[in-house]
Amino acid sequence: MIDRTQQLAPPPQAAPLRVRPAAGRSLVLLVVFVCAACGLVYELELVALASYLIGDSVTQASVVLSVMVFAMGVGSLLAKRLRCRAAVGFGLLELSLALIGGCSALVLYASFAWGGGSRLVLVSFSLIIGVLIGAELPLLMSLIQRVSRRDRDVEGTVADLFAVDYVGALVGGLAFPFLLLPWLGRLTSGLLTGAVNAVVGGLLVLCLFRHDLTRRSRLWLLVANAAVLAVLGTATVLVDDFERAARRAVYGDRVRVALETDVQEVVLTGGPGGPLDLFLDGRLWVSEGDERRYHEALVHPAMRGPHTRVLIIGGGDGLAAREVLRYRGAASVTVAELDPVVVRLARTDPALTALNRHAYRDPRVRVVTGDAFGWLRSARSEPVWDVVIVDLPEPGTTRSAKFYSQEFYGLLGGALADGGRLVVHAGPSGTRPRTYWTVEATLRAAGFRATAYRADGGLSRLAAGPEREGRATMTAPCDWGFLLAAHASAPRLGLDSGAPPLTSLTPGRLAADARETALTRVPALAPSTLVHPRYEN
């Protein structure tokens, strides 16, 4: 994007152009437009992939954008040395930007899959791409002077450059989420953007400013363009093979299903005949080996009391619904899931349907797909629920943070029947006590009284990492923390008299886990709100 600090300098002496000034000016402005669009796509590519690989979209966006803006200023200063040979300098600059920017997402993903870390790579690419983008403007200003050397309206030329740059950034910013990502995916989008960048930059220099270059420079620039396009084209052809190899490196050799939805990446490994794991955006969400302990602890304490109408927020895998449906008194179960692809898999995948006992075939189950926050705000005609189960990833500074806010719990409070209970998965109380007890403070601020408990012996549902040569593994044993809440007073932990047989949950175990959880309390925490999320990363 354009750096406002640049000013037009006297045009350098160069060979006369064999094109009318108006046509040449339009071509240069067209290149400004394309370069601005490509530059913003590179930025958004890095932000999107870093948020997926590392997590915490707020932090990753801040790191990428701040580093790139700083680097753009550095690039503007460094470009002064190239302005005496603006044409060849711009040609080489665009080739470098096309190759590095186009391959940045590919290399970032590879560093995560095989190297286990990607933060240093993210910062490095942000810095390099920012320097290259920042160097574009001084050179483009020199080039537009070549075609507008008789134009004395300096301010008008600057205004045109700014206007075209901003419009290009707008187009690139809108094209990335609405066209490139849905149609091409993260990796192919970057490669295609790089190819466009190389073609446009090469055409401008080799056609419009070819007489500013020596014959040898033109030949080398042509060969370099062909080489860069060959690299990008080859990478595009092989990108599917690369993704499969990277998935095997991250998730192991048991990948059965890998889908890129409008919401997240969904990966199923193992089963049928082997243990099933479900990953959402690279983070383990369901592990067949221990999911029953998690879901029994999440669901059954909340079912003590009236449970005719039950609402499950999240839980698209159908496993929480499986536990609820074991109660004969559960007449209506509503599952509000953001990603319809997860629900579709839970309905159709043989291993997952076997695990959830075909929960979605039960006529008592109704599915609502979409954002639960917006749905609750608009669902004024919905009945109130006796039990609300929030089965979502643990809170953090991510898109799930709003579902752990005071405002969201206020909506749930209005949806509960008299004597109704709300249970929330709040993350591990042992390893992240501050986050866990912030959820409790937020529930109190929303008018609830909560009882804290946990299920021990699970494995942390965190991102797949390099613990075993980059393969997706669970992290060290920890606990799953829960909060059981109601309006009038904190509910007593226990099991309903009509509870089905359970494999890992007993009233005595619940009481012991509650006592251990209380020892982790962090006092005097402020509640988390939409405008002030307080969960640690």
Structure explained in plain terms:
- It is a single chain.
- The protein is α/β, with parallel strands linked by helices and 537 residues long.
- The chain has 2 domains: 21-244, Growth Hormone, Chain: A (Up-down Bundle); 289-518, Rossmann fold (3-Layer(aba) Sandwich), CATH 3.40.50.150.
- It is 52% helix and 14% strand.
- The protein contains 15 helices and 11 strands.
- It has helices at 21-54, 57-78, 86-115, 119-147, 154-208, 215-237, 239-251, 291-299, 319-324, 340-348, 350-355, 372-378, 406-415, 433-445, 507-518, and strands at 255-260, 265-269, 277-280, 283-287, 309-314, 332-337, 365-369, 385-391, 416-425, 449-459, 477-486.
- The strands form 2 sheets. Strands 7-6-5-8-9-11-10 form a 7-stranded mixed sheet.
- A hairpin with a 4-residue loop joins strand 1 (255-260) and strand 2 (265-269).
- Helix 1 (21-54) packs antiparallel against helix 2 (57-78) and helix 2 packs across helix 4.
- It is elongated.
- Residues 1-13 and 459-477 have low confidence and may be disordered.
How does the helix and strand content classify structurally?
alpha/beta
> What is the strand arrangement across the widest sheet?
7-6-5-8-9-11-10
- N-end to C-end Cα span: 30 Å
Please count the beta strands (DSSP E, at least 2 residues each): 11
Find the CATH superfamily of the largest domain. Vaccinia Virus protein VP39
